[in-house]
Every structure is written in structure tokens, then in C-alpha cells.
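>> received
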Amino acid sequence: IPYSLLPERVTAEGAGCKVVYVCRDPKDAFVSTWMFANKMVEAAHVLGYWEASRRQPEKVLFLRYEEMLRDPVGNVRKLAEFMGCAFSVEEEAAGVAEEVVELCSMDTLKNMEVNKNGTQNHVRNEAFFRKGVAGDWSNHMTPEMAARLDKIVEDALRGSGFAFGATAESA
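>> returned
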């Protein structure tokens, strides 16, 4: 947490609090974070939900973020149906699914007053919103890095029937 977000009862002069901050070389921090995230994939985070959705499709809906971006209205309809509250003919005619997509859009959420100025546990809400786009990794990784990451993920998912580059039909 940034120093500026520590509570005043900690940072105020005369507060009697001492702070110890341990910094880490960003390259090592990146690798450590990556290894943790990779273990999450291996430790059934993605695979557990993928397998559960295949075993019990009536109980677990598995959605892909990139597919949600490509077809937000179709995915809102799919979600509504899964939750047992599919849109009625009248709601469809009135454009309710499209309204839900607009209300939940990244732009709408980012521009809500609470998300521009609110905080959660001393972290500004705006920190939870970035771009919300697919493929931004290409602005931060070399093709070689991406290929290496793809190989690691492919190895972790081997035999599961799931692949991140897969089409919606395989989901």
C-alpha cells in the first residue's frame, strides 16, 4: 500500500507509530507475482471452474472475458438465462439487455463518483479500473515473452480440454 494511503493515525507526527517498508527489485517482484499467478492456474483456479462447468453446466457457468467483450449483450442474455431470469419478449423488445450492458460498461463504472473518489481499505476505488480491454498485454510484453507465457500456460492446461486461445465452441 502506498505511504500516502496509510491512515493518518499511523503517519501523523506524534502518532507513536513506526513503519518498516521492505522494497524489492521490480524484476524479482514481477517474477514472484508471475510464479504465484501460475500456481493459481495450476492449483485449479481456472481448471477447477472449467471442469465443474463441464460436469455440472446447470450449476457452473464458465465465461471468457474476451468473449464477453466481443459479445456483451449475448453474454448478458446467457447469464440471465443461467440465473433463471431470462429476458422476456417484452424486455428484449425494450432493449433491456443492451441497457444492462451499458450500465455495467467499463466507462460507466469508471465514471461513477464512488469509483472516482471512494476508497476501500485505504485503496482508492479507481485503482480497480484500468482499461478493460483484451490484448493490452502486447503493449507491455515482447513477442518472446508472450510466447514463453503461452507455453507455460499451455503446459499447465494440457489434457484439460481448455485452452485460452480456444474458440467459444470449445467452452
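>> The CA atoms of residues 50 and 56 lie 10 Å apart.
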